[in-house]
Amino acid sequence: MKTIWYVDDDKEMVKAVALMLQLLDYETKPFYDARIAARALLSGKNPDLIILDINMPKVSGIEFLSFVRKQIRWHSIPILMLSSEANDVQVDEAMDLGADGYVTKPVMIDELERAIDRAIAHRIGKIS
């Protein structure tokens, strides 16, 4: 079973997305703080995909995305942004930093499944 990390400080959103991911046959590891997710990466644990919110206290999703993409050892991990922010500036910034997809909240399960599939395909195309 593939593992997806979901990094978001909104506990209700994490519960909802975790349920959708379970229905899609993914194991979900929630992180409510991007710093804790970064520590998990640094300890050598790598997920099959990361879903990342933008607006979080302490370390934003954009900062976390930038941190991950600066490390060559994590280039193969697809990152899907899932945020209530839908303005072109933030979408472009996330994509320029190496996000593999961008979906706005609220998200439905079929849209999430398609976005995950596209993010994985996008990352495979980048590293092939």
Structural account:
With 128 residues, the chain is of the alpha/beta class. The protein has a single domain (3-127), classed as Response regulator (Rossmann fold). It has five helices and five strands; from the N terminus they run E-H-E-H-E-H-E-H-E-H. The protein has helices spanning 11-23, 34-42, 61-69, 88-97, 109-127, and strands spanning 3-7, 27-31, 49-52, 79-83, 101-104. It has a five-stranded parallel sheet with strand order 2-1-3-4-5, sandwiched between helices. Strand 1 (3-7), helix 1 and strand 2 (27-31) form a beta-alpha-beta unit. The longest helix has 19 residues, at 109-127. The protein is globular. The mean pLDDT is 94.
Provide the gyration radius in Å.
13 Å
Give the total of domains.
Answer: 1
Largest sheet: 5 strands, parallel
What is the helical fraction, as a range of percent? 40-55%
CATH superfamily: Response regulator
Short précis:
The chain is built from 5 helices and 5 strands, in the order E-H-E-H-E-H-E-H-E-H. With 128 residues, the protein is α/β, with parallel strands linked by helices. The chain has one domain: Rossmann fold, CATH 3.40.50.
What labels describe this entry?
Rossmann fold; 128 residues; alpha/beta
Topology (elements, then pairings):
Layout: E1 3-7, H1 11-23, E2 27-31, H2 34-42, E3 49-52, H3 61-69, E4 79-83, H4 88-97, E5 101-104, H5 109-127
Parallel strand pairs: 1-2, 1-3, 3-4, 4-5
